[in-house]
Write a structure and sequence with these properties.
By secondary structure, the chain is mainly α. The protein contains 18 helices and no strands. The C terminus is likely disordered. InterPro entries: MATE_fam, MdtK-like, Membrane_Transporter-Flippase.
Length: 483
């Protein structure tokens, strides 16, 4: 069997499986696997910039360390609209309402690009002050500002591509976004050093060059994504005449999307606020914390991907009037993620020292990092459970429930526990706070899901006036073409 045949068997498109019929495991696997690859490619984006800027200068590397959390925060502010669009598309597709799915996608693209432009303009004006609040030094602040101002101006391209991924996922196609992301990463790999170091005919732009390379490659990926959706040959179709902002529909998108943005911002802010507590301790503890969170970001990729898969499966099955199948998908995903992440936790516990040693040669940092993994690794499976059920909540449109669980766990449990225990017993108290909050988060998500209030939560609503008659118009156009 050739490599192409093996890949074809591994990655299957939406036309080869039905999310609303048959077994649960196969469609969830084929839906989630490309998301894992896409997320790995997204991680590669950050690693590429980090690698080249590390070769350029230490100050540039420090600047990017301040910039990445801010990029994540800015994107989280607008990410809710992409979640709302994905959920609406999934529910309409599940209900066999193709024209309504197209309208939802068209409105999401238009409103998201408008919102990203406003966020970008605001970000451009305030990034220097925000970076200063994060503690950037006088040597690093100008470089981080240069990077973030370019990223802010390119926010419509950055965010627009995430919207493309979300809408295609809601339709059930996760392979096309994966392929487009691969091309985008490859382009970034090629042009990054030319713009940073000034190779060939290009000027030496330093950290601004990395930002321009990122925006350019994402912008080209967005153009490709829009072309795919305008054609409608793969995934959901968008129509120019349906992209004029509809204020009543915008309220629906915002109503679903704002809690999803709060959920994303809650995760981003919790990492940054925990840094404030960690910073009470020596730099070796801060370094160990940074290494530990990077390890987590890779280990948790399957949970993030499966949660997105459950979100789509739930949306389509709720739209199809099959809440029991949606529940089966969520419960199956929770069990699988508990086992898979639990097994990865055992690996991380047993291999803690060599894992940490990959990132640092400082023996003290290694020792502290090992303690971090060994406290937290036993709770990895609980994160999979919480992610799976939160994905299902989002799929039904209960984004406020998902956001509430995240805020309770992070703001109500993890941060206060980390602060209190760190004052009482030292930095190990922060590690204990991770483990405790992960276990409570799983119990809370499971208990809330068992209440069953999500079963009546469909968010499709009535067909929008602007979408009515689309099918009839297409039939008339086809007849006239044949004539």
């Amino acid at each position: 069997m050739s490599l192409a045949d093996r890949l074809s068997n591994l990655f299957k498109g939406r036309e080869e499986f039905d999310l609303t019929e048959g077994g649960i495991a196969r469609p969830l696997f084929y839906l989630s696997l490309p998301i894992i690859v896409t997320n790995l490619l997204q991680t590669a984006y950050n690693l590429i910039d980090t690698f080249w800027l590390g070769q350029y200068s230490t100050d540039a590397l420090a600047a990017i360390s301040f910039a990445f959390p801010m990029v994540f925060l800015l994107i989280s502010v607008g990410m809710g609209l992409s979640v709302a669009g994905s959920v609406l598309v999934a529910q309409h597709i599940g209900a066999d309402e193709e024209s309504e799915a197209e309208y939802a996608a068209s409105q999401t693209v238009a409103l998201s690009l408008l919102g990203a432009t406003l966020i970008g303009v605001a970000g451009y004006g305030f990034v220097r002050e925000l970076l200063g609040l994060l503690g950037a030094s006088q040597a690093v602040l100008p470089l981080a500002t240069d990077y973030m101002q370019v990223i802010s101006l390119g926010m419509p391209f950055m965010f627009g591509f995430f919207v493309f991924i979300a809408l295609m996922r809601g339709y059930g196609d996760t392979i096309t976004p994966m392929l487009v992301m691969f091309g985008s990463v490859l382009l970034n790999v090629v042009i990054d050093p030319f713009l940073i170091f000034g190779w060939g005919p290009f000027p030496e732009l330093g950290i601004q060059g990395a930002a321009i390379a990122t925006v350019f490659s994402r912008g080209l990926a967005l153009v490709v994504g829009l072309a795919i959706m305008f054609r409608g040959a793969r995934g959901v179709k968008i129509r120019p005449k349906q992209m004029r902002p509809d204020l009543s529909y915008a309220r629906k998108l915002v109503g679903i999307g704002v809690p999803a943005s709060v959920e994303g911002m809650g995760r981003a802010l919790s990492i940054n606020l925990l840094l404030v507590i960690v910073a009470f301790f020596p730099d070796t503890v801060v370094a160990a914390y940074g290494v530990g969170t990077r390890v987590f970001s890779v280990i948790f990729l399957p949970a993030v991907a499966v949660a997105r898969g459950v979100e789509t499966m739930t949306g389509q099955n709720v739209g199809a009037g099959k809440p029991d199948r949606a529940a089966d998908a969520a419960n199956f995903a929770a069990r699988v993620m508990f086992v898979v992440l639990g097994a990865l936790g055992v690996v991380a516990w047993l291999g803690a020292r060599p894992i940490i040693a990959v990132f640092t040669t400082d023996p003290e940092v290694v020792d502290i990092g090992v303690s971090f993994l060994r406290y937290v690794a036993p709770s990895f499976g609980f994160i999979g459970v919480m992610r799976a059920y939160n994905g299902s909540f989002r799929g039904t449109g209960k984004t406020l429930t998902a956001a509430a669980i995240v805020l309770v766990i992070y703001a109500g449990i993890r941060l206060p526990t980390a602060y209190g225990l760190s004052r009482a017993i030292g930095y190990e108290g922060i590690w204990i706070a991770f483990a405790v909050s992960n276990a409570i988060g799983a119990a809370l998500a499971y208990g809330w899901y068992r209440r069953g209030t999500w079963r009546d939560a469909g968010v499709r609503g009535a067909e929008p006036a602007a979408a009515q008659g689309v099918g009839d118009d297409l039939e008339v156009e086809e007849v006239s073409t044949d004539d």
